[in-house]
Amino acid sequence: MSVPAGTQQDFLSVDVNYMMADFLGGTQGISALDLQRAQALIDKAGQRMQQKRSEMVWRELPYSQTAVVEQILAYAAQAKGQFENFVVLGIGGSGLGPTAVHQALNHPYYNELSAAQRAGFPRFYVVDNIDPERFAGLLDVINPATTLFNVITKSGSTSETMAQFLIIREMLRQRLGTDYAAHIVATTDQTKGNLIAIACEEGYKTFFVPDGVGGRFSELCPVGLLPAAMTGVDIKQLLAGAAAMDEWLSNCRTWDSNPAYLRAVLQYLAIGKGKNISVMMPYSEALKYFADWYAQLWAESLGKRVDLAGNEVFAGQTPVKALGVTDQHSQVQLFTEGPFDKVVNFLAVGEFKQEVAIPSAFGTIPGVAFLGGHTLNELMQAERRATEFALLKAGRLNNTIMLPEVNAYTLGQLIYLLEVETAMAGELLGIDAFDQPGVEAGKNATYGLMGRPGYEQNKQAVDQEAPKLTKYILQR
Ligand code: PA5
Asked: What is the pLDDT of residues 287-315, one digit of tens each?
């Protein structure tokens, strides 16, 4: 696989050896011949990707956000000294990306650090649920008078986010009087939706989600960049990493040169072999929430009832989140011996930011003493290799994306790689990876049940559903 010259050390790598029949045999594994035959499909799907590139506005984000980045950095610098806490209110793509990047690039106990240890940057919270206990609980630990709330909703109308916004706005109004607007920054569409109208009327600072960028593809615009900048993440490097990945992917069209196409076509071929589950398993706590971000990207993009021609296809591959090494003592038993229905995607890290030595002790107990003199880093790598090997021996497809280290540059690459892989998988499956009609039925029923004008029929439909049968409800 060719990598842009001179940058190998900074680049993630994609290792698909253990997806292949060379190691797994022909029943489970994918042969080089399968890949060669699939090149015609890749060519066609790749051409469609090229033709649609101007519609895929998210693909230009590494380049189109330059001016916005300066505005974000200026705003973040000014807000830094003013606020102790920064709270994201957003759900789906508006919450998962900010969470993933924060966990990846900031201190693992960031909020517990002193202000000086955080270099003056505010504490960071993402509220992506409306659970009343958790929401009320947040208000027990932050002082609204020293908190900046970032309401993120592309559509400007998502019930969960708007409900959170209404609660916070009222609380700020009561506590701070007319100054409350300075505690709210809105990230939304520039013209459409309710939030932009409210923001303009009330004078909130605003940042915009570019037209045509869907929620789950929005991490590299202000949706993700503002929260990242508020904790000191180098957002220019994040975008530079994405741009470098784009350069790699845009110049390579074959399975053995383009890692996004290779991963997409392997998943596509694996689905054909009944692998209906895609496990994302980082061997790194920093990348733990990256698995959540991937789960939304993969599930919402590919899970579709109909193909582009309108035929019912019920496409998709169920993403499962796992964490190395924690899940070795939980889900790995199933991955190794359960149904042959999974692809396990490992995220590996070459160099961790810390090295922790394991002291030597208990020389007379060999089963303990062998650990001494090693490091947690070595143990982590050994366990990852051991799991990869165990899966291989059990005939289970697995692959590894290796980040030389987790930093803004490599993370930008990873985000962009998986976004292009997802779009390519959508093309191979012949579905629209950018809509989410399956979410609408539940949304509309909620609107109806909550009394939103215009949705009365949705309420009626729920109310008129045949009553549940008591014989299927057990109660003591
Ligand atoms: O990917 C998507 O488009 C969705 O998951 C959205 O991110 C999610 O529904 C939130 O939407 P919004 O940002 O409009 O509030």
From this structure: 999 999 999 999 999 999 999 999 999 99
The answer on 299 and 339 residing in a single domain is: yes
Residue located nearest, by CA, to atom 15 of ligand 1:
153
Domain boundary at 212, 233, 254, which?
Answer: 233
The answer, yes or no, to whether any atom of ligand 1 lies below 6 A from the CB of 155, is yes
Determine whether the shortest distance from the Cβ of 95 to ligand 1 is under 6 A: no
Name the domain boundary from 196, 216, 233: 233
Which letter, b or e, does each residue of 212-230 get, where b requires 16 or more Cβ atoms within 10 Å of its Cβ? ebbbbbbbbbbbbbbbbbb
**Residues 151 and 189 grouped into a single domain:** yes
Say whether pLDDT at 28 is over 70.
yes
> Which of 133, 201, 312, 329 is flagged as catalytic?
329
When divided into structural domains, the chain yields a total of 2
Q: How far apart are CA 17 and CA 21, in angstroms?
A: 9
Cβ atoms of residues 89 and 152 within 8 Å: yes
Please tell me whether residues 253 and 108 are part of one structural domain: no
The answer to whether residues 182 and 117 belong to one domain is yes
Note if 321 is an active site residue.
no
Domain assignment of residue 448, yes or no = no
Annotation says 247 is catalytic: no
pLDDT, residue 6, reads: 42
User: Residue 186: inside a domain, yes or no?
Assistant: yes
> Which string of DSSP letters, residue by residue, matches 330-391?
TTHHHHHHS-S-EEEEEEEESS-S---BPPP--TT-HHHHTTTTSBHHHHHHHHHHHHHHHH
211, 128: one domain: yes
Mean pLDDT to the nearest integer, 76-90 = 97
What per-residue confidence (pLDDT) applies to 7? Answer: 52
Distance 91 CA to ligand 1 centre (A): 7
pLDDT band at 108 (very low <50, low <70, confident <90, very high): very high
Catalytic status, residue 471:
no
pTM over 0.90: yes
In a domain, 447, yes or no: no
383 in the same domain as 258 = yes
Distance 310 CA to ligand 1 centre (A): 24
Q: Do 339 and 423 fall into the same domain?
A: yes
- Containing domain of residue 254, as a range? 8-54+238-429
Domain membership of residue 288 (yes or no) is: yes
Q: Which amino acid is at 283?
A: Y
**What residues contact residue 471 under an 8 Å CB cut-off, 6+ apart?**
none
Angle at 141 between CA 136 and CA 143, to 5 degrees: 100
Q: Give the pLDDT confidence score for residue 3 in this predicted structure.
A: 43
Q: What is the pLDDT of residues 152-207, one digit of tens each?
A: 999 999 999 999 999 999 999 999 998 999 999 999 999 999 999 999 999 999 99
Query: Is the shortest distance between the CB of 91 and ligand 1 below 6 Å?
Result: yes
Model confidence at 5, pLDDT cuts 50, 70, 90, reads very low
CATH number of the domain residue 169 falls in = 3.40.50.10490
Res 442: pLDDT: 86
In angstroms, the CA 235 to CA 437 distance is 32
Ligand 1 midpoint to CA 293 (Å) = 12
